[in-house]
Amino acid sequence: MSTSVIPDPIRLLPWRVLGPLTLLVMFGATVLYSAGGGKMWPWAGMHLVHYVVFLGMAVVVSYLPRDLFKQAAYPLYGGLVVLLVLVEAVGRIGGGSQRWLNLGFMTLQPSEMMKPAIVLVLAQFYDNLPPQMTRSWRALVPALMLLAVPAGLVIIQPDLGTALAICFGAVVVIFLAGVPMWWFIGGGLTAAIVAPLAFFFVLKEYQRKRVTVFVNPEADMLGAGYHITQSKIAIGSGGFFGKGFGNGTQSHLQYLPEAHTDFVFATMSEEWGMVGGLFVLFVFFVVLFRWGMGVARRAPDRFAAMLAAGMTATVFFYVAINMMMVMGLAPVVGIPLPFLSHGGSSMMTNMLCIGTIMAVDRWGRRGRRFYG
After folding, report:
1. Model pTM?
2. CA angle centred on 187, ends 126 and 312, rounded to 5°
3. What is the Cα Rg of the chain in Å?
4. Three-state DSSP state, 186
5. Exposure pattern of 167-195 as b/e (b: 16+ CB <10 Å)?
6. For residue 317, what is the enclosing H or E element?
């Protein structure tokens, strides 16, 4: 029996990770407070509310048994596919895309929930697959079908960034399952051939502009290249220590579009400089590489290892693509920065991933009352 005055369910949570993560969220609220002109609402205040609510959700998820995860994999996947179909039929249109379902009490974006769901269902698929079949077509074709359905439904919304995030988490799980490496090499060569065709015949006009602007943003600095040009100005003008809290001009004078969502890192960098950027990177290193991948390495079984690594990779994709995007190293695809950008859907998705990794961490701990 524990002699601590702190209840075991609270004491045994991974505070070495939740502590830095909470500091990052509070730092994000500070950035959003400044971006909102010195007002807590609606951005900074709701950012903290979202974190508290979804942190509670993550804690609940962390105490779910392994068998429940496995039993829920296919029903959850199927339910989300149905919701994605409903999005196409009756979904709400916003910003030129049809991505949301209006449930009355809230607006739900099913594609966000599909990111952790695809990792869960593929981990379950490969855990059930006999090891001798891992190198046969039976290890790849069904998995690609499980991936193609939601990815295709998301692409036609259109939401290329979310579709890429779904694919990234899935590919990580497929790789960890031990399928032959030459399949990945062949897939890469196929993608290199298909990409030019997709550019001309699949992508929307605004998506093609994002790619051409990525190659040469100065060609249309006041048009399609405006976002990335202003973002790089904001980041560069912050220098090493930044202009100071509340002294950013790009966001306050509304030169920087989406200063509270997709380009929040540029907003932060202008006021907090490289020092603020290094703090953000340090927290992500602690959460994703030291903890997330560490949990995957210590996982008690194959299913748990693929699940933890896939969830870690999903959050990493958010971080890597957003930071590359705001610095002009990747096309603008509308992916928010985890735990800093304003938005309930992205916070929910990332906290679901964190909660799942916490659950795997719990499964790996033996001989404790609450983590056994």
Report:
1. 0.89
2. 50
3. 21
4. helix
5. bbbbbbbbbbbebeeeeeeeeeeeeeeee
6. helix 302-326
For residue 55, the one-letter residue type is L
Instruction: State pLDDT tens for residues 120-151.
Output: 999 999 999 988 888 888 888 999 999 999 99
Contact 319/337 with Cβ under 8 angstroms? yes
Closest to 321 in 3D by CA, of 173, 208, 162, 203: 162
Q: Amino acid identity, residue 216?
A: N
- 312: CB partners within 8 A, 6+ apart: 288, 292, 293, 295, 296, 353, 357
Among residues 248, 258, 257, the alpha carbon closest in space to that of 346 is found at 258
What type of residue is 284?
Answer: F
- DSSP, res 177: T
Amino acid identity of residue 229, one-letter, is: T
Which amino acid makes up residue 226? Y
Report pLDDT digits (tens) over 69-96. Answer: 999 999 999 999 999 988 887 766 555 5
Whether the CB-CB separation of 355 and 17 falls below 8 Å is answered with no
In the chain, domain spans: 1-63+216-372, 72-203
Backbone angles phi, psi at 159, to 5 degrees: -150, 80
